[in-house]
Amino acid sequence: MKTIGMRLTVSVLALTASAGLAFAQSDELIAAAKKEGSLTTIALPHDWCGYGDVIAGFKAKYGLEVNELNPDAGSADEIEAIKANKGNTGPQAPDVIDVGLSFGPSAKAEGLIQPYKVSTWDSIPDSAKDADGYWYGDYYGVMAFMVNKDLVKTMPTDWSDLLSDEYANAVALAGAPQTANQAIQGVFAAGLSAAKGDVAKAGEEGLKFFAEMNKKGNFVPVTGKSASLAQGTTPIIIAWDYNALSWRDVLAGNPPAEVIIPKTGVVAGVYVQAISAFAPHPNAAKLWMEYLYSDEGQLGWLKGYCHPIRFNALAKEGKIPAELLAKLPPAESYAPAIFPTLEQQGAAKDVIAKKWSEVVGADVAK
């Protein structure tokens, strides 16, 4: 377990010393990808981590079509889409996935993804990638509260505040904890706060916390989004900071929204990329990875308020524009951030996903 300030952590994360380099954005790879003609993605909302602009940039640079499946899917849905489309070369078979950290090793173990090391492999921290190249971290953020200031007069500053009578029928997760990594991590973060930092107890304590919130009538069992916040259905949403900040920009003050990083239980979550073992367009998939992990792609995520996984390397080389850093919350807000290990995340995911309905008794509608 690590506690890391997320703005400038150049000296904290060690970089791997060597790796077999890939084709990069070579003429050969570009030609092979163009011959395939298209790329199929899944679960990439355009307002998530700046993906709208990232996808547009990839299309403009290489002239490939991008077939976007089910933007609102969760990590488990992405894995199921690979399983359901083994041998299918049609438009419903995803070439690439973007999933929560704990889903990477399990997908590898099930033979659902294939190895590929991008040319910038050396600048991806060892702790955020599979040594054999089956999956690799792409960006990270922390759990935050997004609040409709027209409807909520007292801003919550920590997880325990969400149990206040003032927040009756107000608090929502940004997904279903049985399938969506964002929701699982929200429950985990609440539990980490309740357990006073004991990661081993965070899953069970998170379920107890939401069971109490549901019993009090504060929990709203629908998927929180910018639209539901604006409509007043979910005045408080628990979501990744980059999603909340992006939604705040989209709302543009109608209604006014505030994004708050809680004082405790600050959980940082890494998402990872991988190529399907059955990808109909494997070269387009590799080119997509090369683009995402290039300086251009990484800064595209930062524009969407995500901390790109190569943040440290880019910062060290002076490649991050000051105006992008200025748009992020103050560095001190991230100081208590905890990066759970793969084992800790996996254990918590199993507890939360399997016991949510039984313990909390509130299935979240999409």
TrEMBL record:
Top-level taxon of the source organism: Bacteria
Q: Which SUPFAM superfamilies match?
A: Periplasmic binding protein-like II
Q: Name one GO cellular component term.
A: outer membrane-bounded periplasmic space
Q: What are this entry's molecular-function GO terms? A: thiamine binding; thiamine pyrophosphate binding
Protein keywords = Signal
Pfam families, sorted: SBP_bac_6 (PF13343)
Signal sequence interval, chain numbering = 1-24
Q: Which processes are annotated in GO (biological process)?
A: thiamine transport
Protein name stated in the entry: Putative spermidine/putrescine transport system substrate-binding protein
